[in-house]
Amino acid sequence: MSASSDPKPFSKKGAGGEIPLLEWVIGALGLVIVTAVVGVLISEAIAGDKSPPEVKLTVQSIAPLQHGFLVKLRAENIGGEPAARVAITAELWQQSKVVELSETQFEHLPPHSSREAGVFFQRDPRPHEIRLRALGYEAP
């Protein structure tokens, strides 16, 4: 009978039978990164920003269209909780009265994020004061 020809299992050990220093360094670096990520996730879950949604609205631009005007706006949730179905009203004011009203809605506004939308007007909004207001939201 001949000697067994079973293949030897793959070994990660170096020529001297020890694990190379580079593998120890890479393993330690991986452990530090994983530990840091887990620590950040735990701290955010325990002590993260729990403030209610706070919507900040700004006009980005005004563009004339064939049959009216488009006012592009930006909604930023500077609060710590998300908001769903955020209702927005945009009013054109002349002196002390509203001359035109338009509305839009954001389906989801995560915390510390922003979204853009547009509202349409028949009148040119440029000579008027544009007032934007968040009317309400739903908890997602």
Structure in words:
It is a single chain. Helix content is 19%, strand content 46%. Strands 1-2-5 form a three-stranded antiparallel beta sheet, with no helix packed on it. The termini are far apart. It is elongated, with a radius of gyration of 30 Å. Strand 1 and strand 2 form a beta hairpin. The chain has one helix and six strands; from the N terminus they run H-E-E-E-E-E-E. The relative contact order is 0.18. It has two domains: 34 residues; 84 residues, Immunoglobulin-like (Sandwich), CATH 2.60.40. With 140 residues, the chain is an alpha+beta fold.
Tell me the structural class.
alpha+beta
Specify the helix fraction band.
10-25%
Based on Cα principal axes, name the global outline.
elongated
Count of domain modules: 2
What CATH calls the topology of the largest domain is Immunoglobulin-like
Largest sheet: 3 strands, antiparallel
The total of helices stands at: 1
Rg on CA atoms, Å: 30 Å
CATH 4th-level superfamily of the largest domain: Lipoprotein YajI-like
Order of helices and strands: HEEEEEE
Head-to-tail CA distance between termini: 74 Å
Q: What is the class of the largest domain in the CATH system? A: Mainly Beta
